[in-house]
Amino acid sequence: MKTIFRLIYDVLSIGVIILVILLSPFRFIYKKLHSSPVQSLWLGTPIITLAFKAKAESLLGVKSKSLVYETYFITQAFDYNLSQWITFPLVGKLCSLLIFGWACIWADRLHLYCDRGLLFSWQPLQINLKELIVYKLLGIQVFFWTYGADVRSQITTQKLGEPNCCTECNLVGQACICNESKRLKYIGKLQQYSTAMFSMGDMIEYTPGSRNDLFFWPVDLDGHNRDKYQPNYPQINHNQPLHIVHAPNHRIFKGTHFLIEAVETLQAEGIAIELSLVERIPNAQALEIYRTADVIFDQCLIGFHGYFALEGMAMGKPVMCFIRKPQEYLLHPEECPIINTHIDTLKADLLKLYNSREQLRDIGIKSRQYIEKYFTLEAFAQRLQTAYKDLGISR
Q1: Which residues have CB under 8 Å from 148's CB, separation 6+?
Q2: Cα 148 to Cα 262: distance, rounded to the nearest angstrom
Q3: How distant is the alpha carbon of residue 37 from its chain centre?
Q4: Average pLDDT, the chain
Q5: What are the backbone dihedrals phi and psi of residue 338, each rounded to the nearest 5 degrees, phi first?
Q6: d(CA 197, CA 145)
Q7: Which label site among 1, 9, 381, 388 has the fewest CB atoms less than 10 Å from its CB?
Q8: Residue 177 · residue 152 · CB < 8 Å
């Protein structure tokens, strides 16, 4: 049954592609006659920052929207959320053909993560390359952004040294691309069809030729989000345990058990420390727990911070995280207050924070200032505008 449906879908997708190409002259005429703002679509993997990046691009005078086929439990706040349609067997997948056709007419610019596009692909963690060919023929600008699993391979990861994302992984071939030759060939194809590829942190190790200075996880501090990220700096209270909050989306990639073991060892030694794990709950609910933290613990394996760390910093929390190459992976590393920790020093680092709690508030204040200076929508929009200018793009 699956094989038959795939055949039907592939045939229909080719039909839609031919129709789009045949109608392309009308698209060009329409775009030429209408001096409307650039129309930009951010799509693919439903990461929380997708909508924030679209909102930031809107600050440049671009008509920018976000679109996803599915959502995670974290958020559903996207301009076009088609998750209810896609859940219908067969019909939902066929709906993607219509969305693809619409995007080919509407969009001047497409932003994608490296693992999925608008057409369905039968290759895991890969975009259907047929759609990229169409975008190139239509003159649609295509930008690729990375988030981690969409570009990581096992050999390159292990070459970074221990610990790393593969240290405790038991999902080889499932969680990331993994296969080195496949990654190299695939990334090469994406770059062939893209206007530009953007990467950051440890992801730059997998995307040679990418632009790596955009640091594209903006935090929306305005509007209704003003209260969402209201600072709540740690209080100096030696009568209460030091409260660590950790929110792993995948424990095996974040080194969660190392943290648990360190905390339990310290507790056994009589140190007043407690740990809260935040897992599989909506972002708004998670933020309320983050607000109670004295310290946010991001991860101790991957070697780069996640969005969780930035949210914690926005709320004025000290953040612990393993940063493998601070000078290369961080934006203005000399100003970044992240507490760089390692699995070998984790227990000692926690104990040091426990014994110097009076410093936590100052670190929290610096953390908030760092976000306000470098990770707002406006700050990201400025970096994006600079990148467009360097690429010869007007907006």
Answers
A1: 165, 176, 202, 203, 302
A2: 27
A3: 26
A4: 92
A5: -60, 135
A6: 6
A7: 1
A8: yes
